[in-house]
Amino acid sequence: MSKFKVIAIDGPSSSGKGTIAKLVAQKLKFNYLDSGSIYRALAWLVIRHKVATTDIENILTLISQMNLSFRNDGVFINDENISMYIREEKIGMMASLLGKNEKIRQHLLEFQRSFAYHNNLVTDGRDMGSIVFPQANLKIFLTATAAKRAERRFQQLQLLDKSVKIEPILRDIIARDKQDSERKIAPLGYDKTYKLLDNTNLSIEQCVDYIINLYLL
Ligand code: C5P
Fold it and tell me: Which pLDDT belongs to residue 184?
């Protein structure tokens, strides 16, 4: 087990995990890992190289050659900043599809664990507390109703595109929740080692304070 501290924040899409985890990391001076961006970067590579999602052998080769790094808040493959491409829902859905495969998950495990080799870490995803860091010092399952998550995402997207509609966003959220929670391997969910935090009616600051207080307890 790593001598470094780990706070794992798991939960469904658009629950605010990323924003909250990043702020907790900043306040505690821990490193931060957005594990979803690893799955998203892989999805982007699979699309770019036109590899079929059923061609696991080639996807595993892509993983072994994937030179992924996080620099100044950006996600890089080799020296290409792919941050702006990987946030699309098409990539999220592809990431979720790839995340169903056990071999793919297995191949990404050590890379994710390496973020706690030399530093304390706050990380968010779907299985960070259950599979990747089962000995995490604190595990949070962060969620909100699908309607609330869709509303938050809608407000974000509206800043970029006034014509965006909430119904397809809600549909996508429900579809991805279903795919992530019904998969056999590392399904989205929590057990008694987690603290459940439903932030439907909470602000970001309230969530950050709650998590830090629990950690410092
Ligand atoms: O969190 P985010 O929406 O960026 O993740 C994209 C997809 O990657 C998720 O829907 C999920 O299927 C997959 N993922 C995962 N395990 C993680 C993080 C993300 O399976 N730890």
Answer: 92
